[in-house]
Amino acid sequence: MKNVLNGFKEFVLRGNAIDLAVGVVIGGAFTLVVTSIVDGLINPLVAAIFGKPDLTGVLNFSINGADFSIGLILDALFKFLCVAAALYFVIVMPMNHLASMRKTGEQAEPEAPAEDVLVLQEIRDLLAAQNARGAGPGSGPVDGPSIR
Fold first, then answer.
1. Structural domain boundaries, residue 77
2. Domain membership flag for residue 132
3. Where, by residue number, does the polypeptide cross the bilayer (predicted)?
4. Of 3, 25, 50, 133, which residue is 20 to 30 A from 96 by alpha carbon distance?
5. Other residues' Cβ atoms within 10 Å of the Cβ of residue 54
6. CATH of the domain at 95
7. Interval 14-24: pLDDT, tens
């Protein structure tokens, strides 16, 4: 049971799961905003063309008491297309543009090692040379570059 909980903890704390959760929440909020714009502005304009209060009243008919609403389907498709277009133009296109700029950009040159790293590398090299000659620790000074 402890392994299951530890595995779940690792899964949740990985960046991908948290990024996905944030994306779902932001996507839901973004969808609400776009749907409100569609319901409040665009649908009334389209429905005014057809002379109905909204798209759900457009192209309705009945056959043997069964009601069919083509307008309801058109309304759902229109909302979907508006949300998809908004997500594409507001999020996907800018992210693709940033990714392509990052790919074509020059690779950053690696920074020169810090002075303390250089000193430690020099000490490592001196110790390796001392061990290669078979001298043990404390067997005397090592010939080579001086340490500052």
1. 2-104
2. no
3. 20-50, 70-93
4. 25
5. 16
6. 1.10.1200.120
7. 667 667 777 78
